[in-house]
Design goal:
Largest sheet: 8 strands, parallel
Radius of gyration: 18 Å
CATH architecture: Alpha-Beta Barrel
Strand content: 15-25%
CATH superfamily: NADP-dependent oxidoreductase domain
Shape: globular
C-alpha cells in the first residue's frame, strides 16, 4: 500500500484516495503551485481546494504543468457561502471548473450549510452529478441535523462529509452516523494547528513506531476510516505526511489518542458560523 494506490470506494463506486493535500491558506501563485507539484511527485493523487481559497487557478496550472494525466487525479473543490442557491451554484461550479482547467471535477462539496440555502444548493449539486460534470458530490461542515434535512428531500445521499476532525475533536457520533448512512467522513485540520504534534501521548506513540507525530495523527484518522487532507506547503513535510501506509496503530495507541478528545474546535461550529458576514 502507498499513498498512490490506497483508495476508498465511495457510495457510488468512485475511488477516492485516503490521503490528499489540503491547500487552505496556501497562497496563490508559486507557493501553492510548489506544494501541489511536491505532492504529486511524492505520490499524492488527491488535491483539495475551494473557491474561497482563491488558489484554484494556481492548482490547475500546477496540475497542467505536471506530467500526470488529470484523469489519474482526484480533485476536490467547494462552493462558498455567498455563491449558494440553485442557479448561483451552477454558475460558481463553472467558474471553478474553468479556473482548475478540467472538464470534470471529481468531488464537489457545499462548503458550509448556509441556513435557508443549503438544500437548494444540494439540488444544484445533484443536477451537476446527473449531467456527468462531477464524479461525486458531498458536503462539508454538516452536522447530523444538516444531513437529515438534506436527505429528507434529496434524490442522492451526500457521498462525503468533510469536517474538522482530530484527536481533540473526535466526532464519534457523527462518524458513526455517516458510516450508518454510507457517507464517507473526511477530516480537515487533522493535525490541529500544529499544537497536537507536541502532545506527550502523540510523541510517545511516534517514538514507539519510529514515525513522526504528524504521521501518527494521520494514521489515527485512517484507523478510524476517515479520509484526511493534511495541509502543508513544505516539500519535506508533504513527502513525510505521505509515508503512513507502512505501519498501523495498535489498540493501546488508539485508546490513548482517543483519550485526548476535549470536543475542542479550532474552527467554527457549523451552527455558529457568521453566515451573515460572507
Amino acid at each position: 500500500m502507498s499513498i498512490q494506490t490506497s483508495v476508498q470506494e465511495l457510495a457510488n463506486g468512485v475511488k477516492m484516495p485516503w490521503v490528499g493535500l489540503g491547500v487552505f491558506q496556501a497562497e496563490a501563485g508559486n507557493e501553492v503551485k510548489r506544494a501541489v507539484k511536491s505532492a504529486l511527485e511524492a505520490g499524492y493523487r488527491s488535491i483539495d481546494t475551494a473557491s474561497f481559497y482563491r488558489n484554484e487557478k494556481s492548482v490547475g496550472e500546477a496540475i497542467e504543468e505536471s506530467d500526470i494525466p488529470v484523469e489519474d487525479l482526484f480533485i476536490t473543490t467547494k462552493v462558498w457561502n455567498d455563491e449558494q442557491g440553485f442557479n448561483e451554484t451552477l454558475e460558481a461550479f463553472e467558474r471553478s471548473r474553468e479556473k482548475l482547467g478540467v472538464d470534470v471535477i471529481d468531488l464537489y462539496l457545499i462548503h458550509w450549510p448556509v441556513p435557508g440555502k443549503y438544500k437548494e444548493t444540494w439540488g444544484a449539486l445533484e443536477k451537476l452529478y446527473e449531467e456527468g460534470k462531477v464524479r461525486a458530490i458531498g458536503v462539508s461542515n454538516f452536522t447530523e441535523e444538516h444531513l437529515e434535512n438534506v436527505m429528507k428531500t434529496a434524490k442522492i445521499t451526500p457521498m462525503v462529509n468533510q469536517v474538522e476532525f482530530h484527536p481533540r475533536l473526535f466526532q464519534k457520533e457523527l462518524l458513526e452516523y455517516c458510516q450508518n448512512h454510507n457517507i464517507q467522513l473526511e477530516a480537515w485540520r487533522p493535525l490541529g494547528k500544529g499544537d497536537l504534534l507536541g502532545e506527550e501521548v502523540v510523541e510517545r506513540i511516534a517514538e514507539k513506531h519510529g514515525k513522526t507525530p504528524a504521521q501518527v495523527l494521520i494514521r489515527w484518522s485512517l484507523e478510524n476510516n476517515v479520509i484526511t487532507i493534511p495541509k502543508s506547503v513544505t516539500p519535506e513535510r508533504i513527502k513525510s505526511n505521505a509515508q503512513v501506509f507502512d505501519f498501523s496503530l495498535d489498540v493501546e495507541d488508539l485508546q490513548a489518542i482517543d483519550g485526548m478528545n476535549e470536543n475542542q474546535r479550532y474552527g467554527y461550529h457549523p451552527d455558529d458560523f457568521p453566515y451573515d458576514k460572507t
